[in-house]
Amino acid sequence: MSYPRFNRDFELKIEALGGEITITPPMRIQFQADKSIYGGLNKIQVQLENLEERKRLALVKDAEQNKRIPFQLKVGYEGQLKLMFKGTVHKGSNERQGPDLISKIEGLDGGFDFLNSFTSKTVEGAQKAIDECLADMLNTSKGKITQRSELSRPKVLVGNTAKLIEDMVGPNETWYIENEQLYIVKSDEVVERFISLVTAQTGLISTPSRENQQTTFETLMNPAIKIGNLVNLKSQTAPYLDGVYRVETISSQGDNYGDQWSQTCTGRPLPGYKVL
Asked: For residue range 39-96, what is the model confidence (pLDDT) as tens digits?
């Protein structure tokens, strides 16, 4: 399916060695971003065409190079941009495809801290343990953290900081990093009170579907829809799926000169939800 292209907009900012790089239309961008509340790192693949040499070379990085190249991608329509992805370049490369020079970026949200941070300390209190781990993650800050249970004795923290945080997440909780902020939420909790309306008028595409108590729906690109937040889904073709859902995954596909400018979301109904 082809979606309107005339008003698509984006801004990609990269803090490369030698200064900040800003890329905007009329440059072409293609991207695939995948986000989930179920642990792991949110990822994005970005492809750019025919950048000038200085910019192309500034993006080059392989997975073993221990250098941090931060970037952020904002998307939207006609200058109305919102942050969609913030992270660091995990891999960056250039290649020739016919007459075009293609720059490719693989980005991770929180990836530099996840791979490189280390903690060695003893703490008292479960919340203190999370705070002390975050203090060792230089580029990751605290988002919304659910109430922590008390510790009966001091806790020794030694090892990779992200792994230590993961080990402290309870069986009824999930953790994720979004836009370099750490979130830990229970199964009945949401991050914000705001509820995005998803209808045909606001960008709903095709008919929602349900499987294993999880509803999937596709919308035009809408950065206001975020994992861990609520949407109010209203479908003319599947009204039995209407309701309020907590968004659990978002897969965004973008090409400002191609067919894709949309996102596929999954969510679960959450009656009696609590706002962190």
From this structure: 889 999 999 999 999 889 888 988 788 888 999 999 999 878 999 999 999 999 999 9
CA dist 178 and 109 (Å) reads 6
SS3 21: strand
Separation of CA 182 from chain center: 11
Strand partners, 106: 45, 91
pTM exceeds 0.85 for this model = yes
54: exposed, middle or buried (Cβ count in 10 Å: 0-12, 13-18, 19+): exposed
At a CB cut-off of 8 Å and minimum separation 6, what does 163 contact? none
- Residues 176, 181, 187, 193: is their CA dihedral positive or negative? negative
Q: How far apart are CA 85 and CA 75, in angstroms?
A: 9
Tokens of 104: 């490719």
Q: How far apart are the first and last CA of the chain?
A: 38
